[in-house]
Specification:
Layout: E1 6-10, E2 13-17, H1 21-52, H2 54-72, H3 77-107, H4 113-142
Antiparallel strand pairs: 1-2
Helix pairs in contact: 1-2, 2-3, 3-4
Length: 145
């Protein structure tokens, strides 16, 4: 059963049973509602991190500038995709690190070795994302030779 519709495997592929127009409209509405909610909650999370975390603001600006630079420089499509993706990957790691820090702080403000370990691992994610982005930019700009 998937999305309110039963599926049956045949030699010719999957046949969808119960796929009438009313059921399909209901299914489409639920998908749209779920994706709309996800977009709202995601933007709330991003804005919350931007308001509370200096690193998020800094790396978001750097990633935005890197994106512009990727279109200004004479790069091919693959090079442009790589530098943009790896630049924004730093922002993604900052989001994950922020989430880890918030959860650890929610559990307890006291200093604990496991809390430190979780926060250090989150910080390492950001650090290695920065190193990877730097390597990609250097290889794209100066070649592998």
């Amino acid at each position: 059963m998937w999305g309110g519709f039963a599926q049956e495997e045949t030699g010719l592929g999957i046949i969808w049973r119960g796929c009438n127009s009313a059921g399909m409209v209901s299914f489409i509405k639920s998908v749209l509602r779920r994706n709309t909610n996800a977009a709202i909650w995601s933007s709330q999370g991003f804005l919350s991190a931007m308001r509370s975390e200096e690193g998020m603001r800094q790396w978001s600006i750097v990633a935005a500038l890197a994106t512009v630079l990727a279109f200004v420089l004479n790069l091919n499509g693959l090079e442009r995709a790589l530098v943009i993706a790896f630049s924004w990957n730093i922002v993604l790691m900052e989001l994950a690190n922020t989430a880890i820090e918030v959860v650890v702080d929610r559990i307890s403000e006291e200093v604990h070795p496991l809390s430190k370990k979780a926060k250090d691992i989150g910080s390492a994610m950001v650090f290695f994302a920065i190193l990877l982005a730097l390597v990609v930019w250097l290889l794209v700009l100066f070649g592998s030779a």
